[in-house]
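Handout, page 2. Input:
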Amino acid sequence: MTTFLGLGAMGTALAATLLDAGLPVVGWNRDPRRARPLAGRGAVVADTVDKAVAGDGPVEELRAAR
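Output:
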């Protein structure tokens, strides 16, 4: 299971690609509304970073551009 911390444009696109391929995804975002579309596609949405990274799969951190 791959975890995405940050579900902006890039995080959402990457997570969606994995979901489309049938792979499991965990997502977290500061604004939980950003995760809703992925939840509807089968992603597990974590409500805290600690819960998001509790698994044993890779973690992708995508920070907002500044």
